[in-house]
Structure formats: structure tokens, C-alpha cells
Amino acid sequence: MYGWRARIGHVAPSRGDTLVYEFYKMFPEGFMIMNTTGTVRNLVDNDFEAALQRIDESVKDLVDNNCDSIIFSGSPLFTRLPFGKDRELGQELTKKYGVPVSAGLTAEVEALKAMKCKKLVVGTPYPDELNKRLKHHLEQSGFEVLQIAGYGVSNNAKLTDLPVHAAYKIAKRLYAKGRDADGIFIPCPRWPTVTDVQPLEDELGIPVITSSVACCWHAMKLIDIKEKITGFGRLMASLGQ
What we know:
Blueprint: E1 6-11, H1 17-26, E2 31-36, H2 45-53, H3 55-64, E3 69-72, H4 76-79, H5 85-97, E4 101-103, H6 104-114, E5 119-124, H7 128-140, E6 144-150, H8 166-177, E7 183-186, H9 194-204, E8 208-210, H10 211-221, H11 234-237
Parallel strand pairs: 1-2, 1-3, 3-4, 5-6, 5-7, 7-8
């Protein structure tokens, strides 16, 4: 059976294509990611609400297909809601299905805390309104956001059209304005990010957390997997500890 070490379920708000691709760049044979696709086509609240309503059904499908842990990603689904709803839903679904289930937003916060980040610069592909919501959530989670900016993408399909190293460029630009930062956060698992993590950490000397890295790390932590992953930053390397 493929995925004999771990079968990770991913509830994607849209396609999930980039996260799946980046998962297999990071993990060796024995690990599998199983994806369900969603309905978010534009980064607007109506699409977010429709995707939110499908999470339970999608989690059940992944449980039925023997996933060991499950992440439902898409931070904008939850930054529009009262603080803590992401954790609440993860706990409810874990109890209901008997499999560890967590939100991508929860994974991101846990990853930043694991790397002891407190002062952040945040580079996103999002428009300003989503950045404001994310900043508020991060502040409620105990972080100080020194800089946040995005590329203004609102059509989901265009996220994959961003240049391969767009995340690297915006992160470096924002860090130049917020040099007191002790962490860089790059949200959204649908634009390419994981190949930028190690170069940024090497150049700037601080942890870099992306959504894809955080979701994969958290999914493995939920089931006590130890596997040192090199070349993708400190967080992934910490899985071997």
C-alpha cells in the first residue's frame, strides 16, 4: 500500500494542486497526501462560506479512505469568523470521526509558535482586505505584525500564475522594512513557496513559515511522525527531533 508511513488528508478550498506538488517535493517514499478539491474560485466571502459548508463532508470522505490525519486549509475561510473558530471546528471533527483533524490556520499559528516567532513580516498573494483580517488574527494569536503586504490576487486560478519566486521577493522586500522581525510568514498553499524557504532562512537568519510547510508539519506532528526533512527550512527539519 502506498502511504505506509502516513496517509495525510487535505481538504482544499479550491484545487489543492500546489500543496500536493510541494508535499511530494519534501517527503520521501512512504508518505502520501490525499486531496479533496473545493469550490472557491474567487477570494470572496460567498465562496468562503460555500467551502466552509463542505468541510465536514470532505473530512468524512478522507476518513473513509483511511487517512491518518487531516488538514482543512484556506485561512481566509476562518479569519472572517470570530477568533478560535478554526480550532473549534478541528476539535469537533476530531471527536466526530476519531482521526486527528485540524485547520490550516491552526497549523500556521502552531508552526510560528514552535519556531518561537513573535515579531512577523507577512508576505501574501492576497488583496488588502484579506491581509487586514489575517493581521488581526495573528495579533489575537499573540504575534506582532511589523509588515504585511500582498500581490492583490483575488481570482483563485491566478494564484498559480504568480512567478515561482514571487514569495521570496515580497518576503525580502518586507523584511527590509521590518528588520526587527524574528520570523517570516508566507500564507496560502496555492502559490509556489517551499523552494523559497531555505534561501530566505540562509540569507536572513530567521525562520520562514509558509502555509504548505506548516500544514505538512502539523499533519505529521498530529500522528507523531519523526522524519528529518532537509532543504526546506528549520520547521521541516525539526520533524526529525
